[in-house]
Amino acid sequence: MLKAVIFDIGGVVLRSPFIAIAEYEQELGLPKDYINVSIRSRGSDGAWQQFERGELPLLAFYQAFSRDLSDTTANNASYSNYCTRKGNECPALPSRLQVDGRELFGRMMRSSSVYDPYVLKAIQCIRQAGQHRIIALTNNFSAFDSPEQPIADTERAFLGWGDEGPVPEHLRRLFDDFCDSSSLGLRKPDEKFYLLACERNDVAPQETIFLDDIPENIKAAKAIGMDTIRVHLGHTLDAVKILEEKLGIDLTTPEGGDVSPGPSPSAKL
């Protein structure tokens, strides 16, 4: 019996930040997914991964993120391997590249600030039914706008974070528990992060269903026994219909349900 529904944030509850990455790749004349592959290929030691675990402050992250994404020697090799795995011919790759990590991150945050209406309505319907806990499991950055690590107002404005920072109250209050990687020191796809979310909410992995847009995160959830739904870019309604069937709760009837919780927050990976 399912007792909890676990949602990713960026790309599920909120607009995907991958859209901004794709636009930035096009501006630089990079092949599709070059930056995404570069980020993932850094493994657990990359700037992005350290930032999401709360190990790098914002300004240091900007510098390290720029270095990681501008390293054509490592990134070209990773992208070539990616093409081989996909069975694709590898396109021409850059011999030199200068990525502005702050600019890219700012675009990602500003562009991914809109609630997905179908997922938002689904959360509200699940809440109204009162049969399942609603949990956020997100690789996020909330630890970086606190009294201990304050961010200047001008920088928050650049990122589109507003006065409440990257995770405003109107986003948090959608959930019974908000598991944030930067606060807990773990990130997806580390299975310890999933298990901690279950432990905090007194549920077994087999009693949960998890929605995410990233295949590696879905694979990790399946490995520990969670039911899963992959949310494909532009197809959130399809994912909600699958969730509706699994829960036996009406999540898609247009009439009823308020889908305007307040100003949109910034999305995360």
From TrEMBL:
InterPro entries: ACAD10-like (IPR052898), HAD-like_sf (IPR036412), HAD-SF_hydro_IA (IPR006439), HAD_sf (IPR023214), PGP-like_dom2 (IPR023198). Transmembrane segments: none annotated. GO terms for molecular function: phosphatase activity. It holds the Pfam family Hydrolase. SUPFAM superfamilies: HAD-like (SSF56784). It comes from the Eukaryota. PANTHER family: HAD FAMILY PHOSPHATASE (PTHR47829:SF1), HYDROLASE, PUTATIVE (AFU_ORTHOLOGUE AFUA_1G12880)-RELATED (PTHR47829). This is HAD-like protein. It comes from Pterulicium gracile. The lineage of its organism: Eukaryota, Fungi, Dikarya, Basidiomycota, Agaricomycotina.
